[in-house]
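Dear colleagues,

As part of the handover before I leave the project, I'm documenting each prediction I ran so the next person doesn't have to rerun anything. This entry is a single chain, and its sequence is reproduced below.
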Amino acid sequence: MVKQLNVFVENKPGRLKAITQVLSENNLNIWLFAIQDRGEFGLMKLIVDKPQAAYLILADKGFACALKEVLAVSIPDKPGNLYKLTSLLFEHKVNIVDAHGIGIASSKKGVCFLELAVKDYAPVKAILKKEGFRSLEEEDIYSI
């Protein structure tokens, strides 16, 4: 499973700089990030090359953070594939709690990172595989 680092951030100038500075100084690479505004605080979601190390370093520096397992799904970058993916999950009564994704034009691939309301991701992975989707592990993310 891919681990996503969630960092709770006070919504004020310099907080994102502080997070990225800590990661940079420790030679940790950010592959993907998303930021959600929640008023006085925000949530920065990160996919990084060494999630456990990033978590420990940021927590040690006083940042409130958590690691979450998310399902990373590779899908060909073409119209309708996100609809196909979300329809498949809906048909199997799998609720998407949170999601973000990226399209990589040079490789004609997309990757969706999904937090699902399930305790065990294995059955969902099997459903996706049967329908032609590829779930990714952390080492697979390195090659995208």
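The radius of gyration is 16 Å. The beta strands are 2-10, 30-38, 41-48, 64-76, 96-104, 109-116, 134-136.

All the best with the project,
I.
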